Amino acid sequence: MTTLQNATAFPAFYDPAKVGQLYLPQMGVAAAAGQASTLAPASQDARRVMLLLVDPQIDFIFMDGSLSVPGAIDDTRRTIEWIYRHAGEITNISTSLDSHTTYQIFYPTWWGNDKGEHPAPYTQITAEDVRKGTWKPLVDPAWSVKYVEELDKGGKYTLMIWPYHTMIGTPGNALVPTLSEAIIYHSAARHAQPTWLIKGSIPQTENYSILEPEVKVAKHPLGGLNTAFLDTLGKYDLVYVAGQAKSHCVLSTMRSIMQYFATQPQVISKLRFLMDCTSSVVHPEVDFDALANAELKQMAQKGMQLVTSQDAIA
């Protein structure tokens, strides 16, 4: 039996070269290796540490994923190895899964024009576009008009038409296999159930933050702020955040956390952002990474800490 806490050795089944490969995770092997470790149960942790992983899914991370983020494979490798090195210190791993269906407001199926055409991926649709009839909602017209107007008023991202991604039932929706193995290993080694957060399944709204939709949907059970999870997060001694993409879903999640705990600086001081375990969407005209880094620095001025996977947990 081996102890990985504060060690550099990784489980024998882990192959860093496989991080960008699609295969069936060795679930039994990972669980057996975890059970064979000498790590104490997470319930005994004097210092409780959460790792919050935002959308670490194949479509965002693999090079041939439908919304691949440049650098995400290396980010994921560093995240996995951080988990193995600190398995004895991580109390809980909470992971979100972006999960979509065919008809959603940010997909081509939702919109059309007078020529019978649908918007191409990466088309932006503004309230003005809808008022002029450049693009017309084919689904739930009244809500759709209200939605783009709310985005304009709220200072949020302009509605973007995205390629089909992380569709429920497809490989792109799945976790990266090597990361799945790391989570299973940690769960078995620490006798700790992982936490799963499903987001993005409301057709009428985008859901960049894993904790709330862009526009609230009052009658939907997932249509508001996930205060239950936020309250749980706030009880941990340290919370580390990683995932994809830094410029969009990870940053939006951080906004939700920072806003919820705006009057609780003692909670904000527990937040640790793993800068080398996340990357930004690359756009030919917009420097999303610079924008994200500028906002993260503002958060750091309020007490959140920017760290790397090589820093000690503290």
What does this structure look like?
This protein has 314 residues and is α/β, with parallel strands linked by helices. The protein folds into 2 domains: 21-100 and 165-307, Rossmann fold (3-Layer(aba) Sandwich), CATH 3.40.50.850; 108-160, no CATH class. It is built from 10 helices and 10 strands. It has helices at residues 27-35, 58-61, 72-85, 127-132, 141-154, 177-190, 227-234, 246-260, 265-268, 288-301; strands at 49-54, 92-98, 111-112, 124-125, 136-137, 159-160, 195-199, 238-243, 271-274, 305-307. The strands form 3 sheets. It has a 6-stranded parallel sheet. Strand 9 (271-274), helix 10 and strand 10 (305-307) form a beta-alpha-beta unit. Helix 3 packs parallel to helix 6. The longest helix is centred in the last third of the chain and has 15 residues, at 246-260. The protein is globular.
Low-confidence stretches: 1-7
Instruction: Identify the CATH architecture of the largest domain.
Output: 3-Layer(aba) Sandwich
Percent helix range:
25-40%
**Largest sheet, if any?**
6 strands, parallel
Radius of gyration: 20 Å
Number of individual domains: 2
Mean pLDDT: 95
The fraction of residues assigned to DSSP E strands is 5-15%
Outline type: globular
Give the end-to-end Cα distance, rounded to a whole number of Å. 27 Å
Class based on secondary structure composition and strand pairing = alpha/beta
Would you identify the CATH H-level superfamily of the largest domain?
A: Isochorismatase-like
The H-and-E topology, N to C, reads as HEHHEEEHEHEHEHEHHEHE
Number of strands: 10
Number of helices: 10
CATH topology of the largest domain: Rossmann fold
How is the largest sheet built, in terms of strand order?
A: 7-2-1-8-9-10
Q: What oligomeric state do the depicted chains represent?
A: single chain
Please give the CATH class of the largest domain.
Alpha Beta
